Amino acid sequence: MRRGFTLIETIMGLFLLGLITVIVLPLVNGNLDNLFKQRVKAQMAYTGEMVVEMLKAYDEETSNPLFIYDVEIGQIIDKFKGNNYIEINLDKEDYEFPIKIIKEDKSDLLWTTRVIVYSKGGGKLDNVEFKAYLQKK
User: Fold this and answer.
1) I want to staple 98 with a disulfide (CB 3.0 to 4.6 A). Which of 19, 45, 88, 91 is the partner?
2) How far apart are CA 60 and CA 83, in angstroms?
3) Neighbours of 26 (CB within 10 A)
């Protein structure tokens, strides 16, 4: 009765193990990279939605000031009032994601507002853009 494996069986086992490893590890690495990109993309979308909703919810009579990063929304709305078209960049180094707010007059009663959230690291992540119509304030 024979005990153990022969040299040929051991080499074949190591070959198959190496082959499986070479195939599986890049797949796992690619999936982990995609998961990270999706997490960052979701954070960018959340940031853009937050900015749009804060602009919509702004009311001059409220006692609590609202801020986008460290800029008060009242200051942004004041800049909106004085211009037919304006671009406001919020892209300081300590911000999580750079933001550009673009406002255009749609009519006498509405503003067209676009919020573009940029990926700080650049790379292959696309920008996230939201468009909203705001009642003139």
Assistant:
1) 91
2) 19
3) 10
